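STRUCTURE:
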């Protein structure tokens, strides 16, 4: 295995751990705040969930965690993720929900 591939895999493992830790913290925060978990809330009302998540962590951190989760868990294309997150930030969740449905199938 080449050095570049080894570094890339190490970075991906690190991103996965950070994203998983942040999402675990958001699960607890959302359960305490809303009675629902973060993932459930994200599926039901992505725009409101995004806004509440960014009240706990900076927007860039939430965006990076969602981007890493979608990219690493589902293999979603970066361009699609960026477009969906841009729409979500604008309060338009349809593109984000479409990406989740497409990635889950």
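SEQUENCE:
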């Amino acid at each position: 295995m080449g050095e570049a591939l080894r570094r890339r895999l190490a970075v991906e493992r690190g991103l996965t751990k950070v994203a998983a830790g942040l999402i675990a913290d958001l699960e607890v925060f959302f359960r305490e705040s809303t009675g629902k978990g973060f993932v459930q809330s994200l599926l039901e009302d992505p725009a409101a969930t995004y806004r509440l998540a960014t009240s706990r962590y900076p927007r860039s951190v939430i965006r990076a965690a969602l981007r890493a989760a979608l990219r690493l868990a589902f293999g979603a294309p970066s361009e699609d993720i960026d477009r969906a997150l841009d729409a979500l930030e604008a309060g338009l969740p349809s593109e984000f929900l479409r990406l989740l449905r497409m990635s889950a199938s």
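REMARK: The chain has a mean pLDDT of 88.
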